[in-house]
Amino acid sequence: MFIKNIRIAARFLSKHKEYSAVNVLGLTLSFISVLFIGLYIFDEFSFESMHGRRDRIYRVLENESSEGKIAQLGEVPFRIASLSDELPGIETGVRIVGIGRANFLSDENENKIYEDFTATEQSFLDIFDFRILQGSRENALAEANTIVLTRSSEPPMWSISLFAPIALTSR
User: Strand, coil or helix: what is 134?
Assistant: First the structure.
């Protein structure tokens, strides 16, 4: 019975080629559309899902235009983070600035380390729930010239004596 139905379908497809091509193309496009929409929804729901307060964390983007091109920047002016005093809907804010690649070396250490760095403030650890492996969440970034290391940047940074790690976070 099943083989008979397949023969009938193959005969119909061979007789009506244009009709079959339109149907197969439409079915293919609909499957691809559903796949892309599903991947987009999955990405939206999985973004920053590791944090306990993820439903209350928002990112402010700035649209900057230069030479006719518009770029979205995640590093908005620092005044945005202090708007919690003026707007009642904002609980707290944090300033984050991507510094980019920085080179670290010292006289006693011949190793050169090229790492991407981000500058932030103490409230970053109050908003985001990164697991602290060493040190305390309250004291990390509380003073000037303190750093927080991720586990991926930990091994090369230990060989430099200029920096004292305050807290280690894991990714």
Answer: strand
Residue among 62, 41, 44, 63 at smallest CA distance from 54: 44
pTM: predicted TM-score of the whole model, two decimal places: 0.55
Token output for 156: 């090369």
Q: Which run of H or E residues covers position 115?
A: strand 113-119
- b (16+ CB within 10 A) / e for 108-121: eeeeeeebeeeebb
Interval 33-54: pLDDT, tens: 999 999 999 988 877 777 777 7
Over the chain, what is the mean pLDDT?
Answer: 76
For residue 167, give the nearest of 150, 143, 144 by alpha carbon.
150
